[in-house]
Description:
Blueprint: H1 10-16, E1 31-32, E2 35-36, H2 48-58, E3 74-77, E4 92-95, H3 97-103, E5 109-111, E6 118-120, E7 126-128, E8 140-141
Antiparallel strand pairs: 1-2, 3-4, 5-6, 6-7, 7-8
Amino acid sequence: MQIASRPPFASERFLDIGLIKEHTFDKRVLHARALILNLGREVRYATETQYRALVARDGGCRWPGCHIPAAWCEVDHLQAYEDGGATDLDNLVLWCSHHHHEKHRPGVQVLGTVADLRLRLANGTVVHCSPRGHTTRSERTRPASAAA
């Protein structure tokens, strides 16, 4: 009896190499089939290899409730490159164009890390931006002044 095999999902292909484990993106240089995924400050724009890793991790726009696929998203530095942000996976996320502009509005603050990403909007609302593949439910926290 022959068992049919299925092609691996994109995230499994990265997990198969044993260098990127579930939810583990540490600060050391990571390699995938001899391709560097963390480039530091030497390169401003994400490479094709980094983009593929972001697609596997984020699945599309990170904004909760947004269904824009990764193919229509833009790669963004959480800490701006101009402000010293590195072109590393732990500083890069995918946003659709609309939410990329929302993230860059005056008064918006990045909270947490890429693994536990939250944005504090100018009005005080905190938006939890989990990767699509790991989202259990989208949550929004209302500012204290808006509660009750």
